[in-house]
Amino acid sequence: MDGSQLRQHLDRLAQDGYTILERVIEADLIDALAEDLVAVERRDAVVPADNGFEGRATVRIYNLLAKGPLYQRIPVHPEVLPVVEGVLDPGCLVSSLSSISICPGESAQPIHADDQLIPLGKPHVATVCNTMWALTDFTEENGATRLVPGSHLADRSPDYGGEYDTVAAEMPKGSVLVWNGSLWHGGGANRSSQRRVGIAMNYCAGFIRQQENQQLGIPPDLVRTFPPRLQELVGYGIYNGLIGHIDKKSPAELLGTGAVQPLVWEYT
Prior knowledge:
Structural class: alpha+beta
Number of domains: 2
Order of helices and strands: HEHEHEEEEEEEHHHH
C-alpha cells in the first residue's frame, strides 16, 4: 500500500469510522487459516457460547496466538498494520485475536461499540482499532458485519439491543474491514446455507496498560502468595467483566487461586 492509498483509508476512517481493504491478504494465507481453524475447532471441541452477544450459532476461538505459528502473521501484516497505526500510533498493542464463524440460522448480534466498557466521555481520541479478516466472502445474506457509519463521532455509545439503521460491510474473501473502536456495529444474521468465517484482529492504544509490566515482572509463583485484592491490582483480574480476560477466563483462575468471575457476555 502506497502513501496515497493509506491516506485515503485513514480519511475514510476519520469520516465514516471504517474502511475496507479489498483483497489485500494472500490467498494461500487465507486458505491456510481457514483450514487450521477447522482443525483447532475439532481438536479443542469448540462449540457456540449460547448467549445473546457471542451468539447461539456462532463458533468463536479465542487466544489464537497460542494456537500455532500461523497466527503470528496476522497482527503484523504489512497491508493492514499501517492503517491501524494511523488510527492509533506505532506504539499500539495486540488486544485480542480470535475467530468468528457465524453459522446458518444465527441472528444478528446487538449493535455495540468495542470501547463501550471504557468510561471515557465521547467522542474521544481512539483507544481501540479493530479489524475483521474475511476468510469467506462477506455478504448481507451470510452475516456481514453491520455498521452505523459516522457513529464513532457520537457523544455516547449505543443502547444495548437498540434498533439502528445499519449498512452491511460486504467484501470479498481476502479483504479486511478496519474500524474505529467507537463505531457502532455488530455481526449480521446468517440467512445463507454456509458459514461466514472471519478473524477478529483487535488492537488497543499503547497507553492502555500499566507503567511497569506487572504480569511479566512478578513471577506467577510469587503472585499466588498475594492476597486476592493485590492479585487484582497487579493485573490478575478482569475489568467490567471483560477487559483483561485470557481465553474467557480471569487470569486469577489460571493462577489456581482466584474465584470464577463471569464475563459480561454471560449476562446476555
